[in-house]
Amino acid sequence: MYGRWLVAGLLSGIWALPVWALDFTEAFHLAKNYDAQVKIAASRAAQDEAGVDVARSRLLPQVSAAAARGKQYTHTKYLSGPYPSRYDEPDTKNWALQVRQGLYRPAEWRSWERAQSLAEASARALDAETATLLARVAKAYLALLEAKSQLKVAEQDVARYAEALRQAQRAFETGLGTRIEIEEAQARLDAAQANVVDWQGQIETGRQDMAALIGQEVNPEDLMPFTEVRGLAHEVLQEPATAWVERMALHNAGLASLKAQLDAAQKQVAVQKAGHLPTVDAVASRTLSRSDSVTTIGEEYLTTNVAVQVSIPLYSGGGVNASVRAALAAQDEAQAQFDGRRRELVTVTTNAYSRVRFGLERVTALDQAMRSAEQALAATRKGVQVGMRNNVDVLNAEQDLAKVQMQWVSAAFELLGSIVELWAATGEVDQALQRLEAVQRQARWDRLDVAEMKGTPR
């Protein structure tokens, strides 16, 4: 029973009973506000969203106005006839107002549609970066929790082997033990102490990894733990792998971003092909000019003009055809990227699902292995009492139990990591945060219940 209570306590965090200051949801939001890649993706999305308005503006009326007022000095000299030279100093004045509305501009329309696709691609790329960040934070968070849990197991081993060493020394002093038993206990203690140092180093590495993600120092004792995760695994496995693959195809943000980029590449082909097509504009203008040239001194003109302008491209040196070929090549590249990423995500999703399924089976099998190790340890201790076993046999049985305990902790955290990876692949970031928050909330209540049972102040 000791082993099962130990690993349950390690996973649910009931041993140290700390006041937790950082749960997974908070860590994720801190990382989201700090992560450079998310900020870059958000800036790119904002740029492309503004690009939609820029492209649309080219389809709206274009209004321009100009005005000028000044003084003109003119000396007129007649080269024939009896006319004397003349000096004029008229005031000049002119203004113009023009309105232009495109009636048929296929390239501009396609450019607007392409800008919309690019904005969609950037928005979904931001979602994809957020899902990737979820997996990164989960990996670092769970690695730090696992290292802390494994350290507790290793410290239990040190305490157990230290007591075994003291017992072996007392038995040797009373003539009931051997030097070999002392050396065996000392060797196990040394190995356990080295294991403690190793996990302490991994905790420090994990602490630095978390700090790099969220932008602030992390105390491992502040991390809120998780309770039993097998319930989450059973929820995941209620649906077959094919259903998760279908959800991935529908909701994966990275795949949706590539699909929007492919759509934008297809529209770019249409933009370039439109270089062969005419454009039609409606133009209306009104101008006033007074003494604005040497032939209109002392005269004022007010002119209104309304027209439909047609521009027909005839030859541009082959540039349009070359642009079309380049756009078609870019379209093929976007199609290949989309197809390749879709196949890759199918593999990622099915592999994550398989890890959840086999991870659950592994945790269940380790439960049974732990029960067997506990029974073997109890039987060995009874064997010592009746003289059929010695202290070395007890040490071996305790080492087997500790090994299973560590394997159980590792398997539990790997199982939870695989579940988060599956959620990230299917783009279910909000659902992942909600479910993990619920599990950690349960861990908080479990902690309070244990504290109450033990009479520990809350």
What CATH first level of the largest domain would be assigned?
Mainly Alpha
Major pleated sheet = 4 strands, antiparallel
How many distinct beta strands? 6
**How do the SSEs run, as a string of H and E?**
HHHEEEEHHHHHEEHHH
Average pLDDT for all residues: 85
List the domain count as a whole number: 2
Separation, N- and C-terminal Cα atoms: 26 Å
The whole-angstrom Rg is 39 Å
Helix content: 55-70%
Q: What would you say the CATH architecture of the largest domain is? A: Up-down Bundle
Strand content: 5-15%
Trace the largest sheet across and list its strands.
1-4-5-6
From the 3D structure, determine the CATH topology of the largest domain: Outer membrane efflux proteins (OEP)
Protein model, in words:
This protein has helices at residues 2-12, 24-34, 36-57, 106-173, 179-214, 230-236, 241-251, 253-273, 319-385, 391-425, 429-454, and strands at residues 62-71, 74-76, 86-88, 91-104, 279-290, 300-311. The radius of gyration is 39 Å and the shape is elongated. The protein has 2 domains: 2-59 and 106-135 and 212-277 and 334-454, Outer membrane efflux proteins (OEP), CATH 1.20.1600; 62-104 and 279-312, Outer membrane efflux proteins (OEP). The protein has a 4-stranded antiparallel sheet, with no helix packed on it. With 458 residues, it is of the alpha+beta class. The two termini are 26 Å apart. The protein is 69% helix and 12% strand. Mean pLDDT is 85; it is low at 1-20 and 445-458. Helix 4 runs antiparallel to helix 5 (179-214) and helix 5 packs parallel to helix 10 (391-425).
